[in-house]
Protein backbone atom coordinates (compact mmCIF):
# COMPACT_ATOMS: atom_id res chain seq x y z
CA UNK A 1 0.00 0.00 0.00
CA UNK A 2 1.47 3.36 -1.04
CA UNK A 3 0.16 6.35 0.87
CA UNK A 4 1.62 9.80 0.74
CA UNK A 5 4.78 8.87 -1.20
CA UNK A 6 6.01 6.19 1.20
CA UNK A 7 4.65 2.66 1.51
CA UNK A 8 4.04 0.62 4.63
CA UNK A 9 6.95 -1.71 3.88
CA UNK A 10 9.43 1.20 3.90
CA UNK A 11 7.97 2.50 7.16
CA UNK A 12 8.26 -0.89 8.80
CA UNK A 13 11.82 -1.11 7.47
CA UNK A 14 12.66 2.28 9.03
CA UNK A 15 11.10 1.20 12.33
CA UNK A 16 13.15 -2.00 12.23
CA UNK A 17 16.28 0.09 11.68
CA UNK A 18 15.36 2.29 14.66
CA UNK A 19 14.84 -0.79 16.80
CA UNK A 20 18.14 -2.29 15.63
CA UNK A 21 19.95 0.97 16.40
CA UNK A 22 18.37 0.95 19.85
CA UNK A 23 19.72 -2.55 20.50
CA UNK A 24 23.35 -1.86 19.50
CA UNK A 25 25.83 -1.74 22.37
CA UNK A 26 27.43 1.54 23.40
CA UNK A 27 30.67 2.58 21.74
CA UNK A 28 29.98 1.75 18.09
CA UNK A 29 30.76 5.31 17.06
CA UNK A 30 27.43 6.73 15.90
CA UNK A 31 26.10 9.54 18.09
CA UNK A 32 22.53 8.30 17.78
CA UNK A 33 23.56 4.79 18.74
CA UNK A 34 25.28 6.12 21.83
CA UNK A 35 22.27 8.25 22.71
CA UNK A 36 19.94 5.28 22.28
CA UNK A 37 22.13 3.01 24.36
CA UNK A 38 22.22 5.63 27.11
CA UNK A 39 18.43 5.79 26.99
CA UNK A 40 18.31 2.00 27.34
CA UNK A 41 20.02 2.07 30.74
CA UNK A 42 17.24 1.37 33.22
CA UNK A 43 16.25 4.10 35.62
CA UNK A 44 14.93 1.48 38.02
CA UNK A 45 16.30 -1.98 38.72
CA UNK A 46 14.39 -3.49 35.80
CA UNK A 47 16.38 -6.22 33.98
CA UNK A 48 14.68 -5.54 30.63
CA UNK A 49 14.11 -1.96 29.66
CA UNK A 50 12.79 -0.78 26.34
CA UNK A 51 13.39 2.42 24.45
CA UNK A 52 10.28 4.53 24.09
CA UNK A 53 9.19 5.65 20.66
CA UNK A 54 9.76 9.31 21.53
CA UNK A 55 13.34 8.61 22.65
CA UNK A 56 14.09 6.67 19.46
CA UNK A 57 12.54 9.42 17.36
CA UNK A 58 14.52 12.12 19.17
CA UNK A 59 17.75 10.16 18.71
CA UNK A 60 17.01 9.79 14.98
CA UNK A 61 16.30 13.51 14.65
CA UNK A 62 19.53 14.28 16.49
CA UNK A 63 21.41 12.01 14.10
CA UNK A 64 19.91 13.78 11.06
CA UNK A 65 20.78 17.14 12.60
CA UNK A 66 24.37 15.99 13.23
CA UNK A 67 24.65 14.83 9.62
CA UNK A 68 23.49 18.23 8.39
CA UNK A 69 25.87 20.08 10.70
CA UNK A 70 28.77 17.85 9.67
CA UNK A 71 27.95 18.41 6.00
CA UNK A 72 27.81 22.17 6.50
CA UNK A 73 31.14 22.14 8.35
CA UNK A 74 32.77 20.09 5.61
CA UNK A 75 31.50 22.58 3.03
CA UNK A 76 32.91 25.48 5.02
CA UNK A 77 36.25 23.69 5.46
CA UNK A 78 36.43 23.04 1.73
CA UNK A 79 35.56 26.66 0.94
CA UNK A 80 38.30 27.85 3.32
CA UNK A 81 40.85 25.76 1.40
CA UNK A 82 41.38 22.88 3.82
CA UNK A 83 43.40 20.26 1.93
CA UNK A 84 42.03 17.42 4.07
CA UNK A 85 38.52 17.86 2.63
CA UNK A 86 37.84 16.94 -0.99
CA UNK A 87 34.93 18.15 -3.09
CA UNK A 88 33.65 14.60 -3.50
CA UNK A 89 33.55 14.15 0.29
CA UNK A 90 31.61 17.39 0.64
CA UNK A 91 29.11 16.39 -2.05
CA UNK A 92 28.63 12.88 -0.64
CA UNK A 93 28.14 14.24 2.86
CA UNK A 94 25.62 16.77 1.54
CA UNK A 95 23.66 14.10 -0.31
CA UNK A 96 23.62 11.80 2.73
CA UNK A 97 22.28 14.64 4.87
CA UNK A 98 19.69 15.48 2.20
CA UNK A 99 18.47 11.88 1.93
CA UNK A 100 18.28 11.54 5.71
CA UNK A 101 16.27 14.77 5.92
CA UNK A 102 13.90 13.67 3.15
CA UNK A 103 13.32 10.34 4.91
CA UNK A 104 12.63 12.20 8.14
CA UNK A 105 10.09 14.43 6.42
CA UNK A 106 8.37 11.38 4.93
CA UNK A 107 8.17 9.72 8.35
CA UNK A 108 6.81 12.94 9.84
CA UNK A 109 4.19 13.18 7.11
CA UNK A 110 3.13 9.58 7.70
CA UNK A 111 2.91 10.16 11.46
CA UNK A 112 0.79 13.29 10.97
CA UNK A 113 -1.45 11.41 8.57
CA UNK A 114 -1.88 8.54 11.04
CA UNK A 115 -2.60 11.01 13.85
CA UNK A 116 -5.24 12.81 11.76
CA UNK A 117 -6.82 9.49 10.82
CA UNK A 118 -6.98 8.45 14.46
CA UNK A 119 -8.49 11.78 15.49
CA UNK A 120 -11.20 11.38 12.84
CA UNK A 121 -12.19 7.94 14.15
CA UNK A 122 -15.47 7.75 15.91
CA UNK A 123 -15.45 6.03 19.27
From TrEMBL:
Transcription is among the record's keywords: no
Listed InterPro entries: FliE (IPR001624)
Primary localization class, coarse: other
One GO MF term attached to the UniProt entry: cytoskeletal motor activity
CC annotations in GO: bacterial-type flagellum basal body
Keyword line: Bacterial flagellum, Cell projection, Cilium, Flagellum
The family this protein is said to belong to: Belongs to the FliE family.
Protein's name according to its UniProt entry: Flagellar hook-basal body complex protein FliE
Species in which this protein is naturally found: Methylophilus rhizosphaerae
Lineage: Bacteria, Pseudomonadati, Pseudomonadota, Betaproteobacteria, Nitrosomonadales
Gene designation per UniProt: fliE
Amino acid sequence: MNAGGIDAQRISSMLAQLRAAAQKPEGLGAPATQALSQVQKPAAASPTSQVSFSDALKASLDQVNNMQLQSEKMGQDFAMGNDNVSLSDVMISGQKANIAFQATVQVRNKLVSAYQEMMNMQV
